[in-house]
Amino acid sequence: xxxxxSKIFGISRHRLTTDGEGVTTLVAFTGCxxxxxxxxxxxSWEPEKARRYTPEQLFEEVKxxxxxxxxTHGGVTFGGGEPLLQVDFIKEFxxxxxxxxxxxxxxxxxxxxxxxxxxxxxxDGYIVDIKDFNPKIYLAYTGKEIDLALKNLExxxxxGDPKRVKVRxxxxxxxxxxxxxxxxVESLKAMGVTDIDEFHYIIR
Length: 204
Fold this sequence. Notes:
TIM Barrel; eight-stranded mixed beta sheet; 33% helix; single chain; alpha/beta; globular
């Protein structure tokens, strides 16, 4: 039976409270359904520049920081790209590391609903990147419709503790206004999101 493999373009260790609680290692997959105009990780669009890993190979590489993970309630945050496209890989990785590490996903949630259902019990939390609640702004910025992302977010909030979900809402130059961001924040609160990170993109 062939081993599960995924392409990973970055592994960043010793991140402190930026991608979840405690000390985390950020693992960035290639592959993304969005084409955001100011994408910070365009390397995720170029799979030829990534290295193939099996879950076992990744576990052997990141377990060097297990003591930090356990002492600080940290662990591994999968990002990218879009980690929720890597269902089998993440499930197999969880089986290797057990329940002691925190496993989070930085995600747009613009993925098939079945992927979210398959990984929800595996993940300890989500860092969700909702660019803007306005469908026209979201489409103009990402190249995709927002409906699927909102459906998945609603399901996650209804099927677990909403406190496990952080949603990031950016001020995007030339795409949304402060008023647009305020509307997005109010919509998220109405859905039951309690942890909202509002920030500004710095475009160079």
